[in-house]
Amino acid sequence: MLKLTISSLCLFVCISVSAQTSKATPPKITEKAAPRILQAKRATKPVKIDGIIDEDAWKDASLATDFIEFRPVVGAKEAEESKTVSYLMYTDEGIYFGGFCYERTRDSIARELKGRDGFGMNDYIGIIFDTYKDNLNGFEYFVTPLNEQWDAKMAPNNDGNSEDFSWNAVWKSAVVMHDNGWSFEIFIPYGAIRFGKKEVQEWGVNITRRRQKTGQQFTWNPIDPNVNGFLTQEGYWTGITNIKPPVRLQFSPYFSVYGNHFPVNQSGTKNLTGQVNGGLDVKYGLNQAFTLDATLIPDFGQVQSDNQVLNLSPFEVQFNEYRNFFTEGTELFSKGGLFYSRRIGGTPIHYGKAGNQLTANEKLLKNPAESKLINASKISGRTQSGLGIGILNAITKTQYATIEDVNTKDQRKFVTDPLTNYNIIVLNQSMKNNSSVSLINTNVTRSGADYDANVTAGLFDLNDKKNTWNLGGKVAVSQLFGYLPDGKNQTGYSHQVYFGKTSGRFNFNVWQELTDTKYTHRDMGYFTNNNFLDHGTWIGYKWIEPKSWYNRIFMNLNGRVSKLYTPFAGIKETYQTGNINYNLEVQTKKLWWVGTFLGYTTKQNDFYEPRKAGLFFTRNQSFAMGGWVNSNEAKKYSFFSEIFARRHVNFYNQFGVDATVGQTFRFNSKFSVSHRLAYFPRFNNIGFTTIAGDDVIFAKRKVNTVENVLNVKYSFTNMMWITYRMRHYVSTVDNREYFTLQQNGKLLPNATFAGNVNQNANFFNIDMVYTWQFAPGSFLNVVWKNSIYTFNRVIERDYFKNFGNTLDADQNNNLSLKVIYFLDYLDMKKWGKKK
Questions:
Q1: How far is the CA of 460 from the CAs of 157, 227, 464, 499, in angstroms?
Q2: 3 state SS of 462
Q3: In CATH, what number does 35-241 get?
Q4: So what's the pLDDT on residue 19?
């Protein structure tokens, strides 16, 4: 029945689109032509970066104009009244890029102050350099009409090229708005880009412009969205001669002051503490291609608070990384999915064992939830031959829990995390046809008797000459040394292989993934479970030529089947789960996005929900459906809404809903407010509750989860802004009936269990940040953080009472000031000469 439904829907969409196609003449799409070429020209006269293209030097620069649209109308030429004129040239010190973005009127320019690397609802222009000309790795520099900067590294992943906007460089820009558009000037010093050491060089290059209010995007060298990859369709900047990278030595010393107001301590008094920190970040260019990044005595106290949740699953929650050192320029280290940076300075490996060490008359006085990072460093870069090398090393200090005798007040220490060294090495070789191979090794070495871990993986991603067919995969081996109780080593194996078509309107991918029972990369990566053999496929079709009512349509069908690779001891069952999903996304002429989802999941055997070896839990099949809509974000007011529902068949009437509503209002270019409300009710939810003796207890329960997030942003200038983020999360688990899990995966009613295992959890956080970029690369930050956590066994069903009770609880307040000052060796050298 489901297959018939999905097939009918696919047929309906195809017929509808075909009908529209017959009514309108498709726009003319330019044939794929030879890449455009800019002859490099060296500036011989000075340029002042003030946003006005009036210096004589610009008259001799290379001219890049006649941009081609690739979104929404592929291949269309720019209108004369909104054309783009840009210039490019270079000197011994760096690259100059400038030009004029014409508009009908000043009001046609979309502009919003959003902060560095904040896209917002802005027009922009940017230049992308592929300095190694490998169609894989690029450097991007963007500027908005209000002179806010973005920069990014572009690197390949399984979905094509991805942009890492956490990478930051120091460069100059200026913008001036006019009645008929806006002009810009950019200077990129060679210290802000990486390139080889050839005497005469040719770089890949492209220039892109976005007009936010019309949803249009243009590039200097034409881009066909049906072709895999952005850098594979670049132009060339030729004849760059006698440029040499400068000495790249940059320092970012910091000074920070913290004032902490903690909740009530054991003696019933308030804790008021202060802290003063200082440290240093260093960037040093080892040669033309490689850079050493080091952080000494790092301070991450001002990073955004984690989105904590009540976790009912058998697996740990994966949190986002907000620490700059681990987000900036780490594209090499993310290959293969083996590196989860939150492992470094994360939860101690024996954190949960501290409470088990207590004897009579003892209490756990202190048990830190995070290990302290001593220092970290990384070396990364790419040679002229396309070999990328990345090395990251970090050390965390020994972490202790403090145990106190309640009578004598004597204290003793229990090691929850030994002195630990984390290391990752990545070798990535770029090849022809947008292809690459990689070798990755991660290693965790712990002092004392704790086990060590090592994972080695080889990756390959190959494309044919026409960049249409793709074959790739991964082979990984993990080793644990001294892990088992008898001290023996453990070796595991995993692989993944995929094949597909990546260019054209019709694309597909088929894949297989396998891990044996001993494989793990948990010690340095995010890892849930092993022992599986999965097969899957993805089939997609797209319409990118605008018609009478839509700009773009994307449709895909995907499915997956999973089974155990090796049966668990005492369990004959090996089948885990299977599902099939259908997705449809449409962008309308009004720049709205709408989408629908249909899904079917087969009967499941869950080997992890019981939390006890030798058991599994069987769920019946389920159907899911949903839809979403996103209004035109270029408008002052925009909203997002999504609803998703899943119904299980003949399984305790289990039913769940995910409903989310978000909205944003931009009062002007400086001030905006956004709000998101998410509601996740689960009716007759069945899941693990506790273990009582030898019995695994499940419950039929009502689970209610609400997440409420408010964001406020005000920018004083493009160099000074303040943000406010408030998040309240509440989740209640009201257990109604109890069951004992049987050996066959089914549940037997349990009328004798009388424990109170209800849960009522609240997380409340405020992050208020004032930022002033008082000099290039230099920042002053003032941050107020407020954190509240409450948990009890009494269910409060009224959301507002829950919220009020949370605000009445003990609060952890933190106020901090941090100053980071950027120092460049070349600038310091110039200062010395002037003196």
A1: 11, 20, 13, 12
A2: strand
A3: 2.60.40.1190
A4: 37
